[in-house]
Amino acid sequence: MNGIPVRFRPRKGPGSGARSRILLPSLMFTALSVSVISTLGAPMVPTIAREQHVSLSAAQWVLTVTLLAGAVSGPVLGRLGDGPGRRGAIQGALGGVLVGSVLAATAPFFGLLIAGRALQGLGMGLMPLAISVAREHLPAQRMRTGIASLSITTSVGAGLGYPVTGIIAQHLDYRAGFWFAACLSAVALVVVSLVVPAGSAVPRRPLDVTGAVLLCSGLALLLLALSQGVAWGPASPATLGCLGAGVLVLALWMVQASRARHPLVDIRLVRNRAVLAANTTALLMGIGMYGVLSLVNLFTQVPDGAGYGFHLSLSATGLVLMPLSLGSITANRLASALVLRIGLYRVLPLGALLVCVDLIMLALWRDHLSVLVLGTFLLGNGVGAAYAVMPLLIVRHVPPSETGSATSFNQVLRTVGGSVGSAAISAIMLAHTPAGAAFPTGDAYTTALLATAAASFLGVVAAVAMPPRPADGSAGETVGVASGGGIGAPSDGTGSGIVRRGS
């Protein structure tokens, strides 16, 4: 099944009038809301540790458990979203986020707080469902633009989440942050119930329960080893046991998925060269994106006496990270122009290359705050451009019945990449912290940034080497861009939305 050509034809929206016009803004609001909520805990870790009377390593579980829940729920939600029950799956996940937010805000002890954060992690699997809705119900001239816009909500939400969380954590009780998340998820739930169409033209397919158990278990074990490996010790029995078991279970899942009649994720489609390029680059760029966010967050808040850093408050640190959102939004327009000029398959490696160059710049020159601001803006441009075209590559090569499943797997790989980056950075920081010192040396940041730059460069290589060649019959396909329209408007001038080949 190498290279399934998918032609985009005109379609009607979910309805006439205002409801059809507000579908895409409603989907974007929902995706942005859950993206902001997923990053909510990062700047509040020290505050939670202090007020819950737990160690910093224990408090890190407010991030780890959200990551785990998002990774294991994503493939299941993606499959449930490929059918008539799509709106119900979105509502159920948002309901879980709402309950989790209230639980985290009112939790009398740390265990319930962790349970609440796990429920909030369900929201990380909603972006692929939003893409499925956009593919089926948006008109052709807006559909591909909408998919690109939805895909960058991960980075836009991260850039917005840090300053919002920083202000809340600095000036209010940390519980106010979770009440804010409850309000966001409640509004998103109402919007989805009113706007997202209830039906779907995609037939219902049985859920691959065996595949779901294997994939979710394997991902959970793997991410647990990556996120807790530094705390447990890289060579500890717990780390090696989780890592080995996770690899084994994922291998069993791949065998099962290749034989199942209705697999959770169709492995044959994942092996398609374009889909494989998008997924491999997502994994490697996830290391760079989440790595920079963590490093900038740490570097800017280092207190006096460390010999480096800027000693900023949480609020000021959030403002330094905010250009990530602006860069991601700018990249959507930039990617549109680039796709028109050089083609879809060349934009993906350019986005990864920009991230690589940005990380090298921050590794060599980070002594001025303006450089960090520029660095987060360029990161947003690189990640935004790459993330904008990833789902378009996937959607072009998978049938409509696999949209949610295929794009959710891409989202999972971004999450796994973030876990790998976080674990690598923690290990590097620990290795460069002198005995008895409270902070690592400045060289730790140089090493960490260069390591994440190397991962992003491997993403460039994957994006160049893996897409199909002209002999495959699909390399010449591009996504057209209408004047003033962003990625995805019809390129033949007819409004038909038919994909052109050989352009």
Helix-strand layout with pairing:
Blueprint: H1 18-21, H2 23-38, H3 45-52, H4 56-59, H5 61-80, H6 86-106, H7 110-120, H8 126-137, H9 140-151, H10 153-171, H11 174-195, H12 209-232, H13 237-259, H14 267-270, H15 273-301, H16 314-321, H17 323-342, H18 344-364, H19 369-397, H20 403-431, H21 443-465
Helix pairs in contact: 2-8, 2-10, 2-11, 5-7, 5-12, 5-20, 6-7, 6-8, 6-11, 8-9, 8-20, 9-19, 10-16, 10-17, 12-13, 12-20, 15-16, 15-18, 15-19, 15-20, 15-21, 17-18, 17-19, 18-19, 18-21, 19-20, 20-21
Order of helices and strands: HHHHHHHHHHHHHHHHHHHHH
CATH superfamily of the largest domain: MFS general substrate transporter like domains
- Name the beta content range: under 5%
Averaging pLDDT over every residue, what do you get? 80
Poorly predicted spans: 1-16, 470-503
Explain what you see.
The chain is mainly alpha-helical and 503 residues long. The protein has 2 domains: 18-207 and 264-472, Growth Hormone, Chain: A; 208-263. It has 21 helices and no strands. It has helices spanning 18-21, 23-38, 45-52, 56-59, 61-80, 86-106, 110-120, 126-137, 140-151, 153-171, 174-195, 209-232, 237-259, 267-270, 273-301, 314-321, 323-342, 344-364, 369-397, 403-431, 443-465. The longest helix has 29 residues, at 273-301. The two termini are 23 Å apart.
